[in-house]
Amino acid sequence: MTALATLPALTAVPAVAAPAVPAAPTAPPPVRPEDQGGDHLTVVVRHAGAGRDGTFEVFCHPAGGSHPDAADACRVLDERTRWGRDLFAPEAPGGTCTMLYGGPATARVTGSWAGRAVDAVYDRSDGCAIGRWDRMVPLLPTVGLGDSVT
């Protein structure tokens, strides 16, 4: 007897169709406000000039909202955020600032950023305040000395 004679006969197994895989969507679904991460800011700007004043919403991660440049504002905020530091903190009292008036522009930023509540007020009353404002551009609008209105 040969080795082949002891093997059982093979039978054919019917083919089973694989379940259909749905096609990948061409674009992600729109992000709803309730799906946004915790990084949401409301920026109210006054006396900064035409096209700069108003109330703007900024959502980050992903960027969105009514802010004219939410993506760039989120990028700059992300770059400047440091663990243990309040990005929106006022200038330390007692500092030496130039007596340069930057105009009547004011801004208030409220909401949450990096898991912390934000309620910050900005103006351009002296050199330190101007520098603090300018560090928040493009979240806050660019304002030059000749740009402000009264």
Automatic annotation (TrEMBL):
Keywords: Disulfide bond, Protease inhibitor, Secreted, Serine protease inhibitor, Signal
GO cellular component, as recorded: extracellular region
Keyword DNA repair: no
Domain Subtilisin inhibitor: 54-119
GO MF annotation: an example: serine-type endopeptidase inhibitor activity
Cellular compartments annotated: Secreted
Coarse class of the protein's main subcellular location: secreted
Record flagged with keyword Secreted: yes
Signal sequence, renumbered to the chain: 1-17
One Pfam short name: SSI
Domain of life assignment: Bacteria
Family, as annotated: Belongs to the protease inhibitor I16 (SSI) family.
UniProt name for this protein: Subtilisin inhibitor domain-containing protein
Species name: Streptomyces fodineus
